[in-house]
Amino acid sequence: MPEFDSGSNAWILTSAALVLLMTPGLALFYGGLTRAKSVINMMMKCLVAIGVVSIAWTVVGESIAVGDLTGEHPLWGDVSSSFLLGYTTDLEGYTGGVSNAAVAAFGMMFAIITVALIAGAVADRMKFSAWVIFATVWVIVVYAPVAYWVWGSGWIEDWGVLDFAGGTAVHANAGAAGLALALVVGRRIGWKDGNFAPHNLPLVVIGTGLLWFGWFGFNAGSAFASNGTAGLALLNTQVATAAAILAWLLVDRIRGVKPSVLGACSGVIAGLVAITPAAGYVSPIGAIALGAVAGVICPLAIGLKHKLGYDDALDVVGLHMVAGIWGSISVGLFAVAEVAGTNGVFYGGEAAFLGKQVAAVLAVVAYSFIASLIIGLILKFTIGVRISEEEELAGIDSAQHGEAGYDLPVNGNTGTGVPETNAAAAEKVSA
């Protein structure tokens, strides 16, 4: 058993807390992007993911995703090895001297944010009860096996494919699931002609900042030690994201779109997603290049949803799936042997390595899409997945949660619908 490393253990504990912060950050980011009458539902979908995934991961998910790391099973781990996370005496010496419990908690936070990402694709219209069931089933049936394939001695890892922190296992996986679920739930009423502009851009900026901050734990924590690789991953995360912001704004400028905070925040997410699988495997110059490309292709990909006719409300496909695929492929282009153990094509590496990166991420996308489609269809034809037309027009917040995001006077009425008298209104002003 490796000697316990208190410094690395502390770094993993800190990183796990940073990754958990990303989910409330995502709730703010997604909440600001929706209409005012949908903000509570969007935040609730993110927050409930913390609850259901934490329990599902503890009971069985971690066992499927990690198992005993013997590699005896190419598709899932040894469920009995850590069922119900029965760690009592074997608390130390998992990876580089980091405790089993710390690594299990770190992996749990990854599972939580991956599930929460999917919610953005079905904003405004999916039943909350259906979402809770979908999230619970999906993390066990889709995320946990894919995590094992990529990181837990599964067939993708055995194949020599590299994914530092989750371009394939997290973002491409969630994006494909979001696409499948959006197709099952269907388009929002008035999708092509309605006004679905973000209702609160300051909220989007706050959420973006929390995501960016938490992402340093996401990527640098994936070094599983407080070492040089963690430092490289953090640096690469920053510069790739910076390049993506500038590239996104440049694309908007070329298309005749004014520089916007929405574009800048979208560029942040595109860059963060793209660098995730490559953070510890490329040089800073490579990170800048792949971030810039993400800032170019993601806004173009988002525009395709209107041509293809699918209603991905908050662009989970255009940001997470597209940038996740690109980031995973970019490892095969920009990896440097000093940190990755092998060179990408641009550094004299073999094309076969690039081919494996492409094949692996596409295999995960296909599996996630098909499995998510099946789960969604089962829910659709049993309990139903969509709120009624009347509830959607009135607002999913009041219909599903009995709450409103804001209680503000509207046309002389309070948020509760009680008219204010002129005298009462004047008294408020004078006060």
Automatic annotation (TrEMBL):
The keyword Transcription does not apply. One of its GO terms (cellular component) is plasma membrane. Keywords: Ammonia transport, Membrane, Transmembrane, Transmembrane helix, Transport. The chain crosses the membrane at residues 12-30, 42-60, 101-123, 130-151, 171-189, 201-218, 230-249, 261-279, 285-304, 316-337, 357-379. Coiled coil: none annotated. Residues 10-406 form the Ammonium transporter AmtB-like domain. This is Ammonium transporter. It comes from Glycomyces sambucus. The lineage of its organism: Bacteria, Bacillati, Actinomycetota, Actinomycetes, Glycomycetales.
